Amino acid sequence: MVTHGHHEPRLGEVRFLTVAEVATLMRVSKMTVYRLVHSGDLTAVRVGRSFRVPEQAVQEYLRGAFEAAS
């Protein structure tokens, strides 16, 4: 998988994370992740009654938050 440059990964390359995994990764509560998803700040896919967040969406959100803070 290409990690340099900006390309859209093929669906088979997308790694989906659970809300709990995103919360652990970001060191926030699951409720905070749900708020980010519902507000549209964090891209997620609904699967049944739960959400899956593409790993790239978490990286992009954190990159944007980091840039906004500097």
From TrEMBL:
Example GO molecular function: DNA binding
Coiled-coil positions: none
SUPFAM superfamilies: Putative DNA-binding domain (SSF46955)
Residues annotated as domain Helix-turn-helix: 16-64
InterPro entries in alphabetical order: DNA-bd_dom_put_sf, HTH_17, SinI_DNA-bd
NCBIfam families, per database record: excise
Protein name: Excisionase
Organism encoding this protein: Rhizocola hellebori
Phylogenetic classification of the source organism: Bacteria, Bacillati, Actinomycetota, Actinomycetes, Micromonosporales
